[in-house]
Amino acid sequence: xxYSSFLIxxxxxxxKGKNRYLFEDALVSRIRQVLKRVDGDFAxxxxxxxxxxxxxxxxxxxxxxxxxxCVFGITGICPVVKTEDEGFEKLAKDVIRYLEExxxxxxxxxxxxxxxxxxxxxxxxxxxxxxxxxxxxxxxxNMKVDVHHPQIMLTVEIREHIFIYSHVIPGxxxxxxxxxxxxxxxxxxxxxxxxxxxxISKRGVKLDAVYFHAPPYTSExxxxxxxxxxxxxxxxxxxxxxxxxxFTDIQLxxxxxxxxxxLTIIMRRYMMRIAEHIAKETECxxxxxxxxxxxxASQTMQxxxxxxxVCTMPVYRPLIGFDKQEIVAVSEKIDxxxxxxxxxxxxxxxxxxxxxxxxxxxxxxxxxxxxxEEQIDELFAKAIETKELIIIKDCE
Length: 396
Ligand code: ATP
Ligand code: MG
Hints:
Elements: E1 5-9, H1 20-35, E2 41-47, E3 50-56, H2 61-68, E4 76-83, H3 88-102, E5 109-116, H4 125-139, E6 144-145, E7 152-158, E8 162-165, E9 169-170, E10 182-186, H5 192-202, E11 206-213, H6 220-237, E12 240-246, H7 248-257, H8 263-281, E13 287-288, H9 301-308, E14 315-316, H10 324-333, H11 337-340, H12 347-350, H13 362-369, H14 376-385, E15 388-392
Parallel strand pairs: 5-6, 5-7, 10-11, 10-13, 11-12, 13-14
Antiparallel strand pairs: 1-3, 1-4, 2-3, 4-8, 4-9, 7-8, 12-15
Helix pairs in contact: 5-6, 7-8, 8-9
């Protein structure tokens, strides 16, 4: 069947009162953006509280739906058959043809949901429901009406054109990116942080990202893996500015000066400090990490408290209550899992101690960080100065 339009359903944003138009405009602009990935002549319009995607000529249906499923704020995607108003007889024929083409067998319960948005149409919604229902019952003997829980909810909208649809393909939900400020994601090559980025972005938050690498201890391939993960997240989150920070000198310095069982925690405190510094420069409103309570030594409540302590910005940890399997399930859904499990070294694992502290004492940590006083400011400034910016576009 050839669908010439899609009706885009969105609920959460519709309740936002007078801000509603801002949300709708953000949604329309994201839809336009993701459709650049698909070959076809698409037009996205907002009309009477509804968003339609119209398409002229040939296009790939599956690719179009896949692109729309990356737009946060969309709850449902309805492929629509659009016809012209040439009287009831013609409409009845179009509806029958629609059902025949859209369903392999017609032995289900249904309800006709007619809406007359154009008041000069000669029949009202009730009359249309009755008449079209009658036509369907006459034509398909195994179809039955069920007004409460129909298997097929057939919507017929009378507007300038006539729209017929019944399928609702689920969208990702959430809110359009850009409607809730921007945050800085600490993106490693692991499974967790890409999922954390996806989840924050789903709430309408635009993302920048920072990756700490430690050449020559971590390879170009490890960095490429992070770039690839950022590309995948950008399909949902839009363009991401990825800041790549060379962390080697700071890591070596900590390694030289601090007790090895505290390396991870002190390193993580420096990562947070640097991430926050960049976040402030780029107008981010918070930091995002992929941490979850108790997953590893550096994610106990005590460890999280001691990494938090260096930040003045809120630190968002959307996976905080997730088990690993739950995180993996999301990463498979958003297609980051296969990249995340590629076996390239991470800068944290190289310098990790055999027995890291699991209950760091903040006073002790701070005392040991004093050992770094001589050079750390200089190394910090150099790390910021030499950072590389990679712009990850969302439709490449
Ligand atoms: P992930 O799977 O996201 O790497 P993890 O379970 O390996 O997480 P850690 O290595 O303790 O956990 O890191 C916790 C969080 O710190 C990560 O989710 C990420 O947000 C951040 N992080 C860790 N290493 C880096 C890095 N090299 N660059 C940027 N952020 C990092
Ligand atoms: Mg990691």
